[in-house]
Design brief:
The chain is elongated, with a radius of gyration of 31 Å. The protein has 22 helices and 31 strands. It has a nine-stranded mixed beta sheet, with helices on both faces. An eight-stranded mixed beta sheet has the order 24-25-27-26-28-29-30-31, with helices on both faces. The chain is α/β, with parallel strands linked by helices.
Length: 735
């Protein structure tokens, strides 16, 4: 492999095709000869400033032809170009400059090159010498400089151009301060074709540029949000005839977006890459986009890829290597060209050897191609006097790929502590670029942490990032597990019974969500399912209600319908009584609300609590589960259970201890329920539940009392279809 040098090719194009367009910026066009002159002028400035070969020069790289000339001029002077992306605040620029430690900072908007000068690059040239430094935030929030040699940059350009159709020109709505933008510049230099600089957020300008006859732009490199807006601008129409390839990368790429573009006839090429590899590592051929829209394709020539430590689904860490490998990071030992890069990203290979990216770097957020370091945003948020803790994660977004969202813990007792989102966003905006500002702020009572105090970011990501299962941390170290089914506009919170879990209600959740108009949030109570307790103990109903409200707050749910099964029904009614504004409707299936029962039944509940606590103390969860079930369902019910069912119930014995010893039910509060309420029982259930249900319906204003013929206490689990139909009717949802 032969290494070529960007400034050498620039000089060759100036000599052989000097009047051809090189860079178009708005209404101005620089020819190759003019661009070469500007690069030389900037090189003279660098030399006159006393910068020695190999020293770094920071370039404030606002997208402009002058910035392009300055970057090439720094390289021509034998120095190392470190472009600083546009859009950063003064604070961020200072942090980047501190990380780069340049000998000189060039501001092309304020200074001009010395035109008319000539300069010769230093000889001999070392292909492994640093050429550019690309800034990346990594996972710490502190900027890191990825060092790319002339060899790496040339190898990346050669690899890309070997797998793409012939290029007549590049549309570039990406800044030259990022590796993707620099990659376009190097590819254009290799082929001697023009680059048109475009605003990043103007799809109309991009479309006009692609439609313009001169110069014909055959290729574009976009982030997913830009492609989505481009398709919107065309009404999902076909591309101009001159367009041959549209690279898409810089973050998670929605499968639906690839399918949409491909069906419209756009030659879309999903990619996967990273700064440490000079941009691209894999690419999916445009002709495969419809067949494999969820993949990022196969490795480029000269690159290799493997999945390290795959799990049973073949998912493991993506490890890459190849000829475009960087030399490492500033301030760290130089890395050989053949050293692998452990990306920290998770992926797998499909049957055809194509890469499927499962998750980007676990901490970093990539919003429209821009890297957001959570630690940096968290630090700024915690500078607000009302914020004691903060965690920032990425949430999938159809337009941007990801957007940052924040979870904060407020300082106790801070005056006016419940700050609005806009106050926090304004605070962050004073120190951070706009793309780093969280789009929402969840207020949590506690952040999830390990026993050693380390933030469990994956738990925050699950709660705020649109995942379907996870947990919510609670004060004292407990956690509330949750599961989400459906994606409709009306939220339903589903609460399970004793010796049961949220997972056991999956079929009921699916039946409720089947029409597509609701999202069902199924919660595990403390002591049950995924909400294990380190210290199993009876709890007060206040704690369960607080957990439910905290979940609504974390999700940004103002008002929800509550559906409770058995013990979950008692909790749903208490929540509706204590927080009427948060509850749109409440349905309780056979709630064992013993506090309103006759004296004999109340005595029975007290004996059950004492017996269950004694069994738990003597035999742990299994003993509590057996004692509880024998009491409520009879000895025969326990004796007839298959071994597998007994094992499940034994594992849930802590929940029996928690529920049997519950305190704090407030029968007087039932009259405060203002939401639509329905109390349901099964016609074939034990007679125990019907009298309690009758009294509940009498005490709750306007409550509906209904019996479902033939159904029993476990029917919400075993026969969810008819139960779901009645629940939806009670909630006044269409059939």
């Amino acid at each position: 492999m032969t290494t070529w040098y960007a400034d050498d090719l620039l000089a060759a194009h100036a000599r052989d095709a000097g009047d051809d367009p090189a860079v178009i910026d708005g209404a101005t066009t620089l020819t190759w000869r003019a661009l070469d002159a500007r690069a030389s002028g900037w090189a003279v400035r660098v030399r006159e400033a006393g910068v020695l070969p190999g020293e770094r020069v920071a370039v404030l790289a606002h997208p402009s032809m002058e910035a392009v000339g300055a970057i090439l001029g720094v390289i021509r002077a034998g120095a190392v170009a470190a472009p600083i992306p546009a859009g950063l605040t003064a604070r961020e620029v200072d942090a980047v400059v501190a990380a780069v430690a340049p000998s000189l900072v060039l501001r092309p908007g304020d200074r001009a090159p010395i035109l008319g000068a000539t300069i010769t690059p230093p000889e001999p040239r070392d292909p492994e010498a640093p050429a550019v430094v690309v800034l990346t935030s990594g996972t710490t929030g502190r900027p890191r400089g990825v060092v790319l040699s002339a060899r790496a940059m040339a190898a990346s350009a050669d690899a890309w151009l070997s797998v793409m159709p012939p290029v007549s020109g590049w549309a570039m709505p990406l800044g030259v301060g990022h590796v993707a933008g620099l990659g376009i510049l190097w590819r254009a230099l290799r082929d001697g074709v023009p680059v048109r600089l475009l605003p990043s957020a103007d799809p109309a300008a991009l479309l006009d540029a692609l439609r313009a006859p001169e110069p014909p732009l055959s290729h574009a490199s976009l982030v997913p949000g830009q492609l989505a807006r481009l398709l919107d601008a065309t009404g999902d129409g076909p591309p101009p005839a001159t367009v041959r390839a549209v690279l898409v990368g810089g973050g998670p790429i929605p499968t639906s977006l690839v399918e949409r573009a491909a069906r419209a006839g756009w030659p879309v090429i999903p990619t996967y890459g990273l700064s440490e590899m000079g941009s691209g590592v894999t690419a999916l051929a445009a002709e495969e986009a419809l067949a494999a829209p969820g993949t990022a394709g196969r490795p480029l020539p000269g690159a290799s890829l493997r999945i390290e430590d795959p799990d049973h689904d073949g998912v493991g860490e993506i490890v890459v290597s190849g000829s475009s490998r960087s030399s490492g990071y500033l301030g760290e030992p130089t890395v050989g060209a053949d050293a692998p890069v452990h990306t920290g990203d998770l992926g797998r290979l499909d049957g055809a050897g194509r890469l499927v990216v499962v998750d980007r770097r676990m901490d970093r957020i990539v919003r429209g191609g821009e890297n957001v370091a959570p630690a940096e945003v968290e630090e700024v948020l915690m500078e607000h006097p009302a914020v004691s803790e903060a965690a920032v994660v990425g949430r999938p977004d159809a337009l941007w790929g990801q957007v940052p969202v924040a979870a904060i813990v407020l300082e106790p007792g801070f005056p006016g502590a419940d700050l609005g989102d806009e106050v926090l966003a304004t605070h962050a905006r004073a120190s951070l670029a706009g793309f780093k500002i969280p789009v929402s702020f969840a207020r949590l009572d506690a952040l999830p942490r390990t026993s050693g105090g380390k933030l469990r970011r994956e738990a925050v990501r699950a709660l705020l990032g649109g995942e379907r299962a996870g947990e919510l941390a609670r004060p004292g170290g407990d956690a509330i597990g949750w599961r989400v089914t459906g994606d409709g506009p009306h939220p339903i919170v589903l609460l399970h019974g004793t010796l049961s879990t949220a997972a056991q209600l999956d079929r009921l959740a699916a039946a409720l969500a089947a029409p597509g108009d609701v999202t069902v949030h199924a919660l595990d109570r403390r002591g049950s399912g995924s909400s294990r307790l380190a210290d199993p103990r009876p709890l007060d109903i206040d704690g369960h209600v607080a957990d439910l409200v905290a979940y609504l707050d974390a999700r940004g749910i103002t008002q929800a319908s509550l559906v409770g099964v058995s013990f979950g029904g008692a909790l749903a009614l208490e929540a509706a009584a204590r927080h009427p504004a948060r509850v749109a409707a409440v349905v309780a299936w056979e709630p064992p609300y013993g506090a309103i029962a006759d004296a004999a039944t109340q005595a029975w509940f007290r004996a059950l609590a004492a017996d269950t606590a004694r069994a738990h103390a003597e035999r742990g969860g299994p003993g509590a589960a057996e004692t509880f079930l024998r009491a409520v369902a009879g000895d025969d019910a326990w004796d007839r259970l298959p071994e597998r069912a007994r094992a499940f119930l034994a594992a849930e014995g802590d929940g029996a201890l928690v529920d049997a010893g519950l305190t704090g039910l407030d029968p007087a509060g039932l009259a405060r329920i203002t939401a639509r309420a329905a109390i349901l029982t099964g016609g074939a259930s034990e007679a125990f539940y019907a009298p309690i249900a009758d009294v509940l319906a009498a005490r709750i204003p306007g409550a509906l009392r209904q019996t479902l013929p033939g159904l029993t206490h476990p029917s919400p689990i075993t026969e969810p279809g008819p139960v779901a139909a009645v629940i939806r009717a009670c909630l006044e949802l269409p059939a």
